[in-house]
From TrEMBL:
It holds the Pfam family ACAS_N. GO terms for cellular component: cytosol. GO terms for biological process: acetyl-CoA biosynthetic process from acetate. This is Acetyl-coenzyme A synthetase. Residues 542-622 form the AMP-binding enzyme C-terminal domain. Its EC number is 6.2.1.1.
């Protein structure tokens, strides 16, 4: 029998017609290869600079990078005004789709400019100046995007906090950033119901809960649902009272390329979230460049839709700064995919003629579960490109996505990146790359990444990936949209990202990866104590600290176990204090689940909580999470020889 090369069978070259019209050709790789810094200098010319930069990169104070040295620009001007000035004011910037059916708004670039200017004037009236921090805690309403751009216009930093986070998570982020202003809504629609949001802000800024006096001077509230809210006179203000009547005239000030643009908190390996700092010129350059080339956007004709929330980096880069800097028309949807029923996304694609759709593997798997007939009932022929982000996409989901959404024709871009990288780093170019389902393929032109072993030796690409050892994914050269630090904690920045390969000066991403047969990269997932639940980053330490915050818990250990639907699921093992020995276990588990939802967010609620008599520990007292993962995933136990008491597992298994 002839040998079948499965690698060839499962490779997907770009369709010829797509390749012919694609924004990016393979020349980009050659140009970047020839002179990386000159290449980035050329990409920065995508933007409008008030003062040109004199140097592309200053890496003398590594790992603190300075890109586009001496350049000055206004990020909001680049995202809005310049499109209006170029005669595209009537182009739709946002087709906004609210969760309630038929609650829709269309906002042109000219209208967006007016809204951003009004908000910038109103915020200035409130005393906001460049460098101040503003917490934004809002659902996916247009005002959230307007608020972000108004901050950018004034040189104030936004810190968007996902509206699914609890009051205490919001409080921690407000306090760490010392935010002066919080922008929120009265409430939000969730599966047809209006639920409060401002209440969480009230809790978060209440003096009594904190040792420190709140830095928050004002809470600016958009009326979204009309539900009743408590009001603190003097502090609370309605958006419609101060933004709506403000002037639409506002002259943008240019800021240094390294002026801070935003903070975005993300989970690390400790319980304390890190405020990832991004700055202006480099971040916007790479966001704009990657959005243009990876998503192949044609601003005159495409309707782009990224289904992320602005509370995450994907929403920042590929809803706000990437698409708007490119003058693209996009759909922004407020609700969940099943509201009012599972047809919603397909109806939106059909109604607006969406051409580019960017989502997360967990949602693709949800659609798979709902079944093939659902997309088959809709005309999805407008789609010409699909994207994936947030976690490795399993080949089965990749193939289904292409078949059900893309008539088995459209290219898929599987984009690997992180909150810290600011924008996409490893991804196919849709008109160039022959893709293998499940692999993010190669670093984008201008980006350098390697897979290395413990000692920093590069693994050998080209062997069969089945036999290839796994290694660490590192970024061995600085890139424009790299994080510039962790807010208020330069040592943690160095320690977290730059200490593993300090000698070489490489950034360690926290992911394991391996090379495939043709040198492509297969990202395997986190190898630190960070979990990835439906593409959301949650640290084991964060959940453990929420659990031990309950008066009945003596100790807790948390692991991420593989889950068909969500990628990973949270499994917790807890030891109860003696005085809770008689509380029924079910009641306790219920309380603990609630505790995690209140302390962090419902997205961090454990799938399983096991009450156990002991936790597996090494002689030095370290919890052996690897073994707990074996238990959670029902595997044979790995090496238990370093355990103090290997018999603890009988008791742990008995509790499952
Ligand atoms: O483990 C990788 C995974 O998500 C992590 C970054 O999470 P976050 O900062 O929340 O940003 C998510 C959106 C950019 C990475 O360390 N990850 C992200 N995209 C992929 C991925 N893993 C595999 N393939 C991807 N395409």
């Amino acid at each position: 029998m002839p040998q079948i090369d499965t690698e060839v069978l499962s490779s997907y070259p770009p369709p010829a017609a797509f390749a012919d019209a694609a924004n990016a050709t393979s020349d980009l790789y050659d140009e970047a290869e020839k002179d990386r810094l000159a290449f980035w200098g050329a990409q920065a010319e995508r933007l409008s600079w008030e003062t040109p930069f004199t140097d592309v990169l200053d890496w003398s104070d590594a790992p603190f990078a300075k890109w586009f040295v001496g350049g000055r620009l206004n990020v909001a001007y680049n995202c809005v005004d310049r499109h209006v000035e170029a005669g595209h004011g009537d182009r739709v910037a946002i087709h906004w789709v609210g969760e309630p059916v038929d609650d829709e708004r269309t906002i042109t670039y000219a209208q967006l400019k007016d809204e951003v200017c009004k908000a910038a004037n109103a915020l200035t009236e409130l005393g906001l100046v460049a460098g101040d921090r503003v917490a934004i805690y809002m659902p996916m309403v247009p005002e959230a995007i307007v608020a972000m751009l108004a901050c950018a216009r004034l040189g104030a930093m936004h810190s968007v906090v996902f509206a699914g986070y609890s009051a205490s998570a919001l409080r921690a982020r407000i306090e760490d950033a010392e935010a002066k202003l919080v922008i929120t809504t009265d409430g939000q629609f969730r599966r047809g119901k209006a639920v409060s949001l401002k209440e969480a802000v009230d809790d978060a800024v209440r003096e009594s809960g904190s040792e420190r006096e709140s830095t928050v001077e004002h809470v600016l509230v958009v009326r979204r649902t009309g539900i009743d809210v408590e009001w603190t006179e003097g502090r609370d203000l309605w958006w419609h009272d101060i933004v709506d009547p403000a002037s639409t005239d506002h002259t943008p000030e240019a800021f240094d390329a390294e002026h801070p643009l935003f903070l975005l908190y993300t989970s690390g390996t400790t319980g304390k979230p890190k405020g990832i700092l991004h700055t202006s010129g480099g971040y916007l350059t790479q966001s704009s460049y990657t959005h243009f080339n990876v998503f192949d956007v044609k601003p005159e004709s495409d309707v782009y839709w990224c289904t992320a929330d602005i509370g995450w980096i994907t929403g920042h880069t590929y809803i706000v700064y990437g698409p708007l800097s490119n003058g693209v028309t996009q759909v922004v949807y407020e609700g969940t995919p099943a509201s009012p029923d599972e047809h919603r996304h397909f109806q939106v694609i059909e109604k607006y003629g969406v051409t580019i759709y960017y989502t997360a593997p967990t949602l693709v798997r949800t659609f798979m579960k709902w079944g093939r007939q659902l997309p088959a009932e809709h005309d999805l022929s407008s789609l010409r490109l699909l994207g994936s982000v947030g976690e490795p996409i399993n080949p089965e989901a990749w193939r289904w996505y292409r078949m059900a959404f893309g008539s088995d024709e459209t290219p898929i871009v599987d984009t690997w990146w992180q909150t810290e990288t600011g924008s996409a780093m490893i991804s196919p170019l849709p008109g160039v790359t022959t893709c293998k389902p499940g692999s993010a393929m190669r670093p984008l032109p201008g980006i350098s990444a390697k897979i290395v072993d413990d000692d920093g030796n590069q693994l050998e690409p080209g062997t069969d990936h089945g036999e290839q050892a796994n290694g660490y994914l590192v970024l061995d050269k600085p890139w424009p949209s790299m994080l510039r630090g962790i807010w208020g904690d330069p040592d943690r920045f160095k320690e977290t990202y730059w200490s593993r390969f300090a000698e070489q000066g490489w950034y360690f991403a926290g992911d394991g990866a391996r090379y495939g047969k043709d040198g492509e990269i297969w990202v395997l997932g986190r190898i630190d104590d960070v979990m990835n639940i439906s593409g959301h980053r949650i640290s084991t330490a964060e959940v453990e600290s929420a659990l031990v915050g309950h008066s009945g818990v003596a100790e807790a250990a948390v692991v991420g176990a593989t889950d068909d639907q969500t990628g990973q699921a949270i499994c917790a093992f807890v030891i109860l204090k003696a005085h809770h020995a008689d509380t029924p276990q079910e009641q306790m588990v219920d309380e603990l689940r609630k505790q995690v939802a209140t302390e962090i967010s419902p997205i961090a609620r454990p799938r399983e909580i096991h009450v156990v008599p002991e936790l597996p520990k090494t002689r030095s007292g370290k919890i052996m999470r690897r073994l707990l993962r074996d238990v959670a995933e029902g595997r044979e136990l790995g090496d238990t020889s370093t355990l103090v008491d290997p018999s603890v597992f009988e008791a742990i298994r008995a509790s499952k």
